[in-house]
Amino acid sequence: MPDVDDTAAVNAGVTLVLRSTRVVTPQGTRPAAVAVAGGTIASVDPHDTAPPPGARVEDLGDDVLLPGLVDTHVHVNDPGRSAWEGFWTATRAAAAGGITTLLDMPLNSLPPTTTADHLRTKQAVARSKAHVDTGFWGGAIPGNLKDLRPLHDAGVFGFKCFLSPSGVEEFPALDQEHLARAMAEIAGFGGLLIVHAEDPHHLDAAPRRPGPRYADFLASRPRDAENTAIESLIGHAERLGARVHILHLSSSDALPLIAGARRRGVAVTVESCPHFLTLTAEEIPDGATEFKCCPPIRESANQDLLWQGLADGTIDCIVSDHSPCTTDLKTPDFASAWGGISSLQLGLPAVWTEARRRGHTLDDVARWMSAGPAALAGLDRKGAVEAGRDADFAVLAPDETFTVDPARLHHRNQVTAYAGRTLHGVVRSTWLRGRRIATGGEVAGPAGRLLERNN
Ligand SMILES: [Zn+2]
């Protein structure tokens, strides 16, 4: 075979070089020049490497080059409840916030993603509107056992279920018997079950006092509901050899259960969310239902333990659980107001603000908000700045601050629990497969692709 000059071969296709004194790679943050060819990272070279002839160079100075964020928990609600959010607005908010990949939850849209046909309906709606790469979770509800395999074959990343009422009647919860059956079916084809883990019996038994007081709402969603549900999920997963992922963990009490299960070899992973990690029950004003979500935001001592769970690796990822609604549904009564927090565009600065205060680095943030969720979903082209991955980046000015003005958010409804907060970390630009898709909060036209699970 003739000798091949590898450097020249790689350089041949390079059209773009991004240079920064702070590039966040899986091996740490360092000065580097990232060469991009055909939308893929071709190489990560020393900072002073001469660019190949013809390549455009973007010198980012000291701004940080992060891997594009992967948000695996977004309720886009489109079609059907697109007044709440939609693929156009959600993916623009994502792009402005440094997110380059999102996965849509199977409920709150009409239809819900519970059959392969419904998936195709959703894909058709999303196709022309996606500003970032977009994929779909399927749903497991009573009666759709036969639809799970076809949904898996059609490319969903896994299946979401509830154990307690979801908030919408077209997406009912699974009881323990249906749960075991769905988990066995999904394990049979190597799929992933992702679970809203609150036990319905503990919720029923909790004190229920409607009204504007946050303390009453918090008492109605006790930690025990989460702890019990997680314990039973781990039991099922262990018995069936199934993979299970716990969504939006709020109760830190469950961390030892999860860590213990992992030590026994149970395939259980867990996420938490920006609101659980940056907001506390103590500071929520009565009537402020923009802070309502289920499970709820708990006390600051609980939050400290969640951060410990991130630090010791028990919590795998941080994702938004962006679940918006129209403003009229955020009535001042915590019992009846829609539960869901809008944060798609703000997750990175919100988490970074708290992470830096607690002594964490942007390497940690990239692990929790990009590599972790990419690994959960099996997105092996996403989640890291390294050769062979998609050239997806978020460029961050980590020491700059801004005050959250809801009017500047691209979310369809400008309701957010973060209004008026001063956050660290300004997203300068976002890049998707080597293309700049957002600059200073302004978003370019839709360039996202629809993603399917890798086989
Ligand atoms: Zn959710």
From TrEMBL:
UniProt keywords, alphabetically: Hydrolase, Metal-binding, Zinc
Pathway participation: Nitrogen metabolism; (S)-allantoin degradation; allantoate from (S)-allantoin: step 1/1
Highest taxon in the source lineage: Bacteria
InterPro entries: Allantoinase, Amidohydro-rel, DHOase/Allantoinase_Hydrolase, Metal-dep_hydrolase_composite, Metal_Hydrolase
Leading EC class: hydrolase
Keyword Kinase found: no
Cofactor: Zn(2+)
Keyword match Acyltransferase: no
EC number(s) from the headed UniProt entry: 3.5.2.5
Residues covered by the Amidohydrolase-related domain: 64-435
Gene3D superfamilies the UniProt entry points to: Metal-dependent hydrolases (3.20.20.140)
Subunit field text: Homotetramer.
Family affiliation: Belongs to the metallo-dependent hydrolases superfamily. Allantoinase family.
NCBIfam families in the cross-refs: allantoinase
Protein name: allantoinase
Highest classification ranks of the organism: Bacteria, Bacillati, Actinomycetota, Actinomycetes, Kitasatosporales
Record gene name: allB
